[in-house]
Amino acid sequence: MSELSSKADQLKRQADLIGLTREAVFTDEQAKEVLQGKITDGYLVKIKIDLDSLNGMVLILVSSIRKHVMELYAVVGTSPTFRRIRTFADHVQISTDLGDIGKTGGYDPAISENIGRAVHRVFTKEKLEELLPLWQKKDPSHIAEILEMPILAATKGRNIKLQAEVDKLSTAKFRYENPMKGVILPIPKPEDETPSAKDASVPGVSTEPARGELSSLERQIAQYRTSFPKELNMKTVISPINGVEFDNLMEGMEILFRVPTETPEGLTNAQILGLIDEEGKISKEPVVGRFLGIAGNKTEYHIFAEGPNQYLLHSVEEHPVKVAIPKPASMAGTPNKGSAAQGQKKKVGNAPAQESKSSGANLFMLMGAFITIVLFGVLIFVMVIL
């Protein structure tokens, strides 16, 4: 039982990591490469804060692929533990120390939240696009410069000192193994504030709504998800010759998907869809979904369809493709049957003609015999008279 339990825990962990990784990437292939360690999908920005009589840390988890802030933690207060935390320390150790501070109540939640919200407003998608190339080179020098004034404005502080480091890591592993879980919550992005409020608290920062967490594309995706209890990640079945182009897809049209069974999540989805028999064999038959729509921009296209049992089928393509549709009912035996039927029709159609032809020949022979008899009789009658 312990071995089975261990395997079940391992599968659950893999499935959880896959789900978390997908939130930081665009495609299943990218998620697979991240989990295999071929690529890294994020950065953790570690910022130590000395603010007047307070000390603290800000941790910012950034997706380097989607280019947005995934989670942001701000913990600032008077706990002596803050003084021994160093930005170059391992992020697990830093998170553990911050979790301990949270348990003892050695931080100020209100000030921490104000700082977190101010940092959120600075790290827009546009700003991240400027900073990510620097972080790739392990250069965090600009972070302190762009955050000092916004943090002072948000806290009404006077003196501030910031130290920053950047770690390249897997966003999923950080979130899955985070020692702060259940103790310190991430600071939410201030989406609901008006431009005037942002101006008052963070001078010099753009008042346009930040588009990191809830972009236009993500709003489109959310519209499809609201009506379905469960979403299954799928692969589009592509047919370059007989497929239907994106522009020609119509709502309600049947299109084909397949389950990516190379991952634990895919195997679970295959089980849900009834594609695995009692012997553990996986059916290769495609899954049929009724097309709902496409959410996309110039770099990614999310295809949505209603699948069996009202599951939402979701696949992602990096460029427009021709989507496969179910073939009409198999016509494999139809040509032979049609030929046989046509043969039968020909035979049936020829029969009356042959009968008519035979009857005509018989009548002609009878008439010839009759004429011969008549002529023979006339000849005999003439001979008798003479």
From TrEMBL:
Superkingdom of origin organism: Bacteria
Lineage here is: Bacteria, Pseudomonadati, Spirochaetota, Spirochaetia, Leptospirales
Q: Which UniProt keywords apply?
A: Membrane, Transmembrane, Transmembrane helix
> What's the protein here called?
Uncharacterized protein
Keyword Transmembrane helix in annotation: yes
Residue stretches spanning the membrane: 363-385
Is Membrane there in the keyword field?
yes
Region: Disordered; residue ranges are 185-213, 327-353
